[in-house]
Amino acid sequence: MVSSSKSELKSGNKVFLAPTDRNKEIILEQLRPFLDSTNYVLEVGSGSGQHIYHFAKEYPQVVFQPTEYDTSLFSSIEAYTADLDAGHNVLRPIELDATKQEHWKNIIDVSRQERGEAETAHGAYDLVISTNIFHIASWEVGSGVVRGAGQILRPGGFYIAYGAFKRNGKFSTESNAQFDQTLRGRNPDWGVRDIEAIQMVAEEEARMTLVEIRDMPSNNYMLIFQKIDVEE
Ligand SMILES: C[S@@+](CC[C@H](N)C(=O)[O-])C[C@H]1O[C@@H](n2cnc3c(N)ncnc32)[C@H](O)[C@@H]1O
């Protein structure tokens, strides 16, 4: 990631994103009930690694698997998590392009090796999280994240997405509508996505149900999906 804005700084290998720093505690507060009863968490798009470091610091008993599309950020993720005390379990980041089926398959293979499990065809994770991906990536990526989460979650597990979204095609505020225009100006494939479109992919292609939509500060939402609790 190239240092391109005032909100992005670099110290050694650590990339520091100011918005990520501001929302890390707000997000953790919502995740706590899920992390309390979780063994294995995978984060899609760990970015700088600030979030996973913050969450793992609080939950040493949970195994966290970071992933990132931009492999140049691996050194930042690893630099943050190197600061954790022994016993905090963050695994090495894995490359994940959410549109690539072979990358999701690789995640299942790696988790199987890590845990010494002979045959975990799917259902490897209790919780999958992603923050601020859908609006700043193509729809192909966003829908790929949903399909992939459905693939790697165990039955009954949760997928939690945080970020800016529309509801029923409507922006929650005028500033979110302007944000959408700015994003599309930067890249025509980007833009604030409809919760209902994501829900459709989850329900029709990923065996997940949207169980809750939480209002979050700064006009963001947290979407909580649960994998259907029955193996085929
Ligand atoms: C704004 S950053 C969010 C980083 C971090 N989650 C945070 O909240 O600070 C957007 C993220 O979108 C992810 N992304 C973009 N294209 C992707 C793709 N094809 N597959 C998976 N993730 C992708 C990148 O990995 C990047 O981390």
TrEMBL record:
InterPro entries: DUF938 (IPR010342), SAM-dependent_MTases_sf (IPR029063). It comes from the Eukaryota. Belongs to the UPF0585 family. This is Uncharacterized protein. It comes from Modicella reniformis.
